[in-house]
């Protein structure tokens, strides 16, 4: 197959207006026919919407261009706000946002899952607010909803939400912006979840992309030692685009971002579509690439101050992390394939996992719940004797597994055996 040099696509210096992006097979392509790789950052300055302050977006986008970023992830937005200014700023900077559809009060809950009309309508409001922007790369249906295998009964609700939001998108005749899921990197859970969300042969129910929040690569390390070789083995010829929606271990520090050479290198670049670094703003967890001022007392108050950190102003690089990432990305110019030369038929078809494997509870390609149904089962949930230690990083606005800056291939043990044949039943949520 003919390869193409994509420095113009992976670089940040694209000109207004940007081509749109679609998912085809296991790759992203621009409307110009070039393969697209993400080089981005998580961008959530406060729990509120970071895409409503145009002047702040201008300051941040200018520095993101210097960093070499071409994408951002935003975890929470206010669909009633005006985003025209910020979205125009990021478009002119060559930056594509990915937007989470859920809000603080509409998450799909892992232990008591449901998918109802209120959730659907709130997700739809976010889609309605952002679909008009050509530089929207994709929507996340959820972030780390399931963090241990005994929560896997929530997986059909993730898939049901995906189905209904794709149907809403198509009914409204919107552009087919990809809709996907951001998963926690749980060693025993990841293989089943990524296969389940892409199995069954019905593209209207499956995610358009699968993303992973992974902190396995902690510098200094190498590809074979980091855990990435294992991630790659499970991503080979994956049915849809797969990428890192959070990465950037900060132990022992400083961060060297050596994983970027692996992700965009010969071992992984044919199957992975890039990475988003966690995160833009410096907070208590010390993952920030920039800061807006020195750390303050936790009780400090004032304009744009929250949790002991200033959250607006002139961004100043956190060194040497910012420069280390900038230097890595400057040398990364992956070679991709033209859309016209790409045959998506080479991707794999994933079987729906059966219950009992590593504590996974969903038995095959079960019927998905409709809107308004909640879960009951004919078998008790198993109790894990050792739960994964998962919490959200201090100051983060999203549920995530990144507080502990050690590798995040969390181990779940002690799951009960003999869980084959768990059946799912649904009752209406009134």
Automatic annotation (TrEMBL):
Its EC number is 2.4.1.-. GO terms for biological process: fungal-type cell wall (1->3)-beta-D-glucan biosynthetic process; fungal-type cell wall organization. GO terms for molecular function: 1,3-beta-glucanosyltransferase activity. Residues 376-409 are annotated as: Disordered. Gene3D superfamilies: Glycosidases (3.20.20.80). Residues 393-404 have a biased composition (Polar residues). It is an enzyme of class 2 (transferase). It comes from the Eukaryota. Keywords: Disulfide bond, Glycoprotein, GPI-anchor, Lipoprotein, Membrane, Signal, Transferase. The keyword Lipoprotein applies. One of its GO terms (cellular component) is side of membrane. The keyword Ubl conjugation does not apply. It is a lipid-anchor; GPI-anchor. InterPro entries: GH, Glucanosyltransferase. It is found in: Cell membrane. Splits internally a 1,3-beta-glucan molecule and transfers the newly generated reducing end (the donor) to the non-reducing end of another 1,3-beta-glucan molecule (the acceptor) forming a 1,3-beta linkage, resulting in the elongation of 1,3-beta-glucan chains in the cell wall. Belongs to the glycosyl hydrolase 72 family. PANTHER family: 1,3-BETA-GLUCANOSYLTRANSFERASE GAS1, 1,3-BETA-GLUCANOSYLTRANSFERASE GAS2. This is 1,3-beta-glucanosyltransferase.
């Amino acid at each position: 197959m003919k390869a193409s040099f994509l420095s113009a696509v992976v670089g940040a210096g694209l000109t207004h207006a940007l081509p749109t992006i679609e998912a085809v097979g296991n790759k992203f392509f621009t409307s110009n026919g070039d393969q697209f790789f993400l080089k981005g950052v998580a961008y959530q300055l406060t729990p509120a919407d970071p895409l409503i302050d145009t002047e702040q977006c201008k300051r941040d986008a200018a520095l993101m261009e210097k960093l070499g970023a071409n994408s951002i992830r935003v975890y929470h937005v206010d669909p009633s706000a005006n985003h025209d200014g910020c979205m125009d700023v990021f478009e002119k900077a060559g930056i594509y946002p990915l937007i989470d559809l859920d809000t603080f009060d509409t998450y799909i809950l892992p232990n008591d899952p449901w998918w109802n009309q209120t959730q659907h309508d709130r997700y739809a409001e976010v889609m309605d607010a952002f679909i008009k922007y050509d530089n929207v790369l994709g929507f996340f249906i959820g972030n780390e909803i399931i963090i241990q295998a005994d929560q896997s009964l929530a997986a059909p609700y993730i898939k049901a939400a995906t189905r209904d939001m794709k149907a809403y998108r198509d009914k409204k005749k919107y552009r087919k912006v990809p809709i996907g899921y951001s998963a926690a990197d749980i060693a025993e859970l990841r293989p089943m979840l990524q296969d389940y969300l892409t199995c069954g042969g019905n593209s209207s129910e499956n995610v358009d992309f699968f993303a992973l929040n992974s902190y396995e690569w902690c510098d200094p390390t190498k590809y074979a030692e980091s855990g990435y070789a294992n991630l790659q083995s499970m991503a080979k010829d994956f049915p849809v685009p797969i990428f890192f929606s959070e990465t950037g271990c900060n132990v022992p520090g400083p961060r060297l971002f050596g994983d970027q050479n692996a992700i965009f290198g010969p071992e992984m670049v044919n199957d992975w579509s890039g990475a988003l670094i966690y995160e833009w703003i410096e907070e208590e967890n010390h993952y920030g690439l920039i800061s807006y001022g020195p750390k303050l007392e936790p009780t400090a108050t004032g304009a744009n101050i929250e949790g002991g950190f200033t959250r607006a102003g002139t961004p100043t690089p956190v060194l040497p992390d910012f420069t280390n990432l900038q230097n890595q990305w400057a040398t990364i110019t992956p070679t991709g394939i033209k859309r016209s030369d790409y045959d998506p038929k080479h991707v794999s078809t994933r079987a729906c996992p059966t219950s009992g494997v590593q504590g996974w509870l969903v038995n095959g390609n079960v019927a998905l719940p409709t809107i308004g149904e909640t879960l009951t089962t004919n078998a008790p949930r198993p109790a894990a004797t050792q739960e994964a230690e998962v919490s959200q990083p201090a100051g983060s606005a999203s549920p995530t597994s990144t507080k502990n800056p050690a590798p995040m291939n969390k181990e779940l043990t002690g799951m009960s055996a003999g869980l084959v044949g768990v059946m799912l039943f649904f009752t209406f949520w009134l």
